[in-house]
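User: Sequence recovery, please. Input:
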C-alpha cells in the first residue's frame, strides 16, 4: 500500500528533470549537492537549429535510467536510500515531461517514498539555496530563462511577488533569436556571449525596458527587431558587419536594465539579499555586472554556479526539499502540464 511516509529532517532527495533537451538527475542531502548528472541532446537538436519535441522525448527515454543510476551511484548511495523523488511536472514539452514524470512515479511507488511534483521555474528560483546554507527569505530574485524574465520579491519559502516582468519575449529567447540573426548555432545564448566577449558595445541598440511605464516592464522584441534591422540594412548597403560588436552591443542592451532594476528593487524594498536563476544567469557579462552592482549597493548576492543556472535536476531537488518540508506531496495520477503560470 502506497503512503504512510516518515518525514526526515535532512532527507535524501532525488531530483529528476526532463522538460526540454536535458535529461538530468541529482541527489541532495538537505541543501548539499551529492551528485549532478546531465545528459543533453543539444548536439542532436543543433542539427535542426532548435529543439525537436519528438527527438527530445526519445532522447529522454534513452537516458532517464542511466541518469538516475549514475546520480545515485555518484552520491555513494543505493536507490533504497532515497527518501523522496522530486520531478518536474511542467512547464515544458509534454512528451518530454511525461518520460521523467512516469519514471519518477514508478520509482516513488516502488520505494514507497513521497512523489513531489515541481514547477520547473520554481526549481530555477530554488537553485540559490544550494549555494548558501544560510540563505533565507526575504530576498529579491532576478529570473531570466528561455521562457521567463522577471524580478521577484521572495517573501517566504513558498510565496513570492512579481515586481516586474517582460511584456513580450524572454531574455533567453532574445539571445536565441539574435544568435539566429548572426547565423550562430543552437544553443544561441552561450554562442552570442562568446562573440560578445570579442566585441565592443559600440552600437546604440534600445535598452530592453519599457520607458515611461508605471510598472517595471522589460521588452525584448524591439531590441531583437533593432538588431535584425541593423544587420539587414548593412547587408543591403553592402557594408560588412562586425558580428562581435553586434553581439556585445545587444548583450549590454539586454542585460544592463535587468541588473539595474534588480538592484533598485532591493533598495526600494529595503531587502539586502539578491539571488538569480535561469539559463541567462549563466551569462558571464550578467554575472560580472550584477556582482559589481550588488557590491556597490552593499547587497549580498547569492549566485548558483553556471551549470546550476541552465537546466539541471539539483534545482528540482532543491524545490523538492521545500515542498517536502511543507508536506506537499503529489498523487500518483498527477499529469504533466505544458504551461504553468509564474504565480
Ligand atoms: O533556464 P534554461 O536552461 O531553460 C529554460 O527553462 O528556459 O534557459 C535557456 C535559455 C536559452 O534561451 C539560452 O540561450 C539561455 O538560457 N542561455 C544563455 C546563456 N546560457 C544559456 N543566454 C545568455 N548567455 C549564456 N551564457
Ligand atoms: Zn529552465
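Assistant: Recovered sequence (343 residues):
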Amino acid at each position: 500500500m502506497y503512503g504512510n511516509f516518515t518525514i526526515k529532517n535532512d532527507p535524501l532527495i532525488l531530483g529528476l528533470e526532463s522538460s526540454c533537451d536535458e535529461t538530468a538527475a541529482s541527489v541532495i542531502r538537505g541543501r548539499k549537492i551529492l551528485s549532478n548528472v546531465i545528459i543533453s541532446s543539444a548536439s542532436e537538436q543543433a542539427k535542426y537549429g532548435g529543439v525537436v519535441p519528438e527527438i527530445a522525448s526519445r532522447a529522454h527515454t534513452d537516458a532517464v535510467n542511466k541518469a538516475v543510476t549514475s546520480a545515485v551511484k555518484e552520491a555513494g548511495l543505493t536507490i533504497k536510500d532515497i527518501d523522496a523523488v522530486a520531478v518536474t511536472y511542467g512547464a515544458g514539452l509534454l512528451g518530454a515531461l511525461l518520460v521523467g514524470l512516469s519514471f519518477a512515479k514508478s520509482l516513488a511507488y516502488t520505494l514507497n517514498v513521497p512523489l513531489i511534483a515541481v514547477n520547473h521555474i520554481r526549481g530555477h528560483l530554488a537553485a540559490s539555496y544550494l549555494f548558501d546554507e544560510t540563505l533565507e527569505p526575504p530576498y529579491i530574485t532576478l529570473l531570466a530563462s528561455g521562457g521567463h524574465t522577471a524580478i521577484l520579491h521572495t517573501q517566504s519559502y513558498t510565496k513570492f511577488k512579481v515586481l516586474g516582468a517582460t511584456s513580450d519575449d524572454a531574455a533567453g529567447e532574445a539571445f536565441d533569436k539574435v544568435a539566429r540573426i548572426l547565423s550562430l548555432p543552437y544553443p544561441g545564448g552561450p554562442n552570442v556571449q562568446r562573440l560578445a566577449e570579442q566585441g565592443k558595445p559600440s552600437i546604440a541598440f534600445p535598452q530592453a525596458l519599457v520607458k515611461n511605464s508605471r510598472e517595471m516592464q522589460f521588452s525584448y522584441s524591439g531590441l531583437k527587431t533593432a538588431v535584425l534591422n541593423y544587420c539587414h540594412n548593412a547587408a543591403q548597403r553592402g557594408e560588412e558587419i562586425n558580428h562581435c560588436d553586434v553581439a556585445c552591443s545587444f548583450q549590454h542592451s539586454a542585460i544592463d536594465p535587468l541588473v539595474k532594476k534588480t538592484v533598485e528593487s532591493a533598495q526600494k524594498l529595503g531587502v539586502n539579499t539578491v539571488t538569480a536563476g535561469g539559463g541567462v544567469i549563466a551569462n558571464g557579462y550578467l554575472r560580472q555586472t550584477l556582482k559589481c552592482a550588488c557590491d556597490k549597493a552593499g547587497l549580498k548576492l547569492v549566485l548558483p554556479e553556471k551549470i546550476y543556472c541552465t537546466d539541471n535536476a539539483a534545482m528540482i531537488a532543491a524545490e523538492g526539499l521545500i515542498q517536502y518540508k511543507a508536506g506537499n506531496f503529489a498523487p500518483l495520477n498527477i499529469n504533466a502540464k505544458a504551461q504553468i503560470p509564474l504565480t
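DSSP finds ten helices and eleven strands in the chain.
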